Amino acid sequence: MHIETAAIEGIVAITPPRFGDHRGYFSEVFKDAWFRENVADVTFVQDNESLSAQAGTVRGLHFQIPPFAQGKLVRCLAGRIMDVVVDIRLGSPNFGKWISQELSPDTGKQLWIPPGFAHGFATIEPNSVISYKVTAPYSPQHDRGIAWNDPAIGIRWPFDESDMVSSDKDKTLPRLADLPSHFSYSAQQPQD
User: Fold this and answer.
1) Which residue spans within the chain are E strands per DSSP?
2) Which helix (H) or strand (E) holds 180?
3) Residue-level pLDDT at 186
4) By the 8 A CB rule, do 176 and 120 touch?
5) Could you give all domains of the chain from N- to C-terminal order, each with its CATH number?
6) Largest CA distance in the chain
7) Catalytic residue among 22, 25, 119, 132
8) For the residues 96-112, what does the mean pLDDT come to?
9) Is 132 a catalytic residue?
10) pTM for this prediction
11) Catalytic residue among 62, 119, 138, 185
């Protein structure tokens, strides 16, 4: 598997190799031992999947707080998305900064997002299907988020804000400046 480290420590893009012929291709998209040795020594406990019917749908920016903080391994099974990660670790040199990766089934690229980061995405194509593994189960009491359109973060989404579709819940999320500190930065690799 090919690994790319991102500009923000802890975020890793992974592209599994594909072996193809006239029928199509085969790819091992996840191997527990390889992931633990090369990316993060974590246990995934749940797989989630979402479909966004419209291009311009934005979901996020979401995270869960301890003790149900989640690491996520995200991939796009259909369509195409702009996947976004924001560093929310207090004291991090990258606090409030964001990175993005385009994910699609054409490349098979996946994005590892450890705890301490808010995550969201915008669909570039209609009928985009996202699959992601998480290191903690969903817990409504620990579910949090920040506004996807917070000007202090300044994410450059692929559509004008007026053309974006989001949930009522995501429209009411606080800005980063109003968020209590849930994660702190240490100079070591973030752990689950």
Assistant:
1) 2-5, 12-15, 19-21, 24-26, 46-52, 58-64, 72-78, 81-87, 89-90, 98-103, 110-113, 117-123, 128-134, 143-145, 183-184
2) none
3) 82
4) no
5) 2-19+52-178 (2.60.120.10)
6) 54
7) 132
8) 97
9) yes
10) 0.92
11) 62
